[in-house]
Design goal:
Elements lengths: L8 H13 L2 H8 L3 H15 L4 E3 L4 E3 L1 H26 L6 E7 L4 H15 L3 E7 L2 H10 L4 E6 L6 E16 L20 E4 L4 H10 L2 H6 L1 E4 L2 H9 L4 E5 H5 L8 E5 L6 E9 L5 H14 L1
Parallel strand pairs: 3-4, 3-5, 7-8, 7-9
Antiparallel strand pairs: 1-2, 5-11, 6-9, 6-10, 6-11
Helix pairs in contact: 1-2, 1-3, 1-4, 2-3
Length: 300
């Protein structure tokens, strides 16, 4: 019986890295090898399976149609291989070993400083690697195996995932001091001047949560979407450029400290977003993720 030669995981890793980065040098850096080593490994892979996967020119790296399919399959194989190690870790001590978590930008700077010290204290064997990225890229990273779990805000369509809801995060209207009556009562959506509303640019789910909470078509049509972060939005409001929506976790973290910005809760049918931890369905580390979710909730 003739011997069967199979691609190695290292070769598949090189292929996926090249697909992700579109450049031999950057792919080699991501794999911690030299460019010549990565290139040689890919040539060996092509020789092994007898097809060309990548067309190489001076300026561009172009995958063949079959190369695209094999790279997608290689990503699945690598993810399955990683889960073999996950199964072994899951059988040992809870929350130990490496874990990669993506966190959206409207959560990361406000919640992580409260939870990381507790994780370091209670689970010293956990090596938590963090990626800050918007919801769309974060969910893509999850399904492509670049990250193990995602801390985001619902509602958001993240695909076939298991979601553990952590807690509700109320939305507030932030405005320059003196712009609205001193009455501390919640603000109704009808009281918001659509021409003054500043929101995060496209790609940030908080924008959609804020618009959905207000449920006013004219807000979607007239609001200015230009902020790249909540801290930037607060600075614009502090300079009298408009009003904006902020989540309670940002207020609790002191985002309005040393400003002349005031915040009042939103009085609407759906005045909050739900923070959640999501992971791929049937992951062998579900127990770890649920334990992490409990830590996140307790710290918050």
């Amino acid at each position: 019986m003739a011997a069967t030669y199979l691609p190695t995981l290292k070769q598949l890793q090189y292929l996926v890295a090249l697909k992700d980065h579109g450049h031999f040098g950057r792919a080699a850096e991501a794999c911690f090898v030299t460019q010549s080593t990565l290139s040689a490994g890919l040539r060996e892979l092509e020789t092994l399976i007898g097809v060309t996967l990548v067309e190489r020119t001076r300026r561009v790296v172009r995958f063949t149609p079959l190369g695209e399919q094999i790279a997608a399959k290689a990503r699945v194989v690598l993810r399955e291989a990683e889960e073999l190690g996950d199964m072994a870790r899951a059988a040992g001590r809870p929350l130990s070993g490496e874990m990669r978590m993506s966190v959206i930008p409207t959560i990361a700077p406000f919640l992580l400083p409260r939870i990381l010290p507790r994780l370091r204290r209670d689970y010293p064997d956990l090596k938590l690697f963090l990626r800050e990225e918007p919801s769309g890229p974060a969910c893509e990273s999850l399904h492509n195996g670049r990250t193990d779990c995602v801390l985001l805000a619902l509602p958001y369509a993240c695909g076939e995932v298991t979601a553990m809801k952590l807690f509700d995060d109320h939305l507030f209207l932030a405005f320059p001091e003196g712009e609205m009556p001193a009455d501390p009562a919640p603000v109704r959506p009808a009281d918001i001047d659509e021409t003054r509303l500043l929101l995060l640019e496209d790609g940030h789910c908080l924008k959609e949560h804020a618009l959905a909470a207000c449920n006013r078509a004219e807000l979607r049509a007239e609001a200015t979407m230009l902020g790249t972060s909540l801290h930037t939005m607060v600075q614009m409001v502090d300079n009298g450029l408009g009003v904006t929506m902020l989540p309670k976790i940002a207020l609790d973290a002191g985002i309005l400290d040393h400003t002349n910005v005031v915040a009042r809760p939103l009085d609407a049918d759906h005045p909050s977003r739900t923070l959640a931890l999501v992971w791929r369905r049937a992951s062998p580390r579900e127990r770890d993720f649920r334990l992490l979710g409990e830590v996140l909730t307790a710290a918050a």
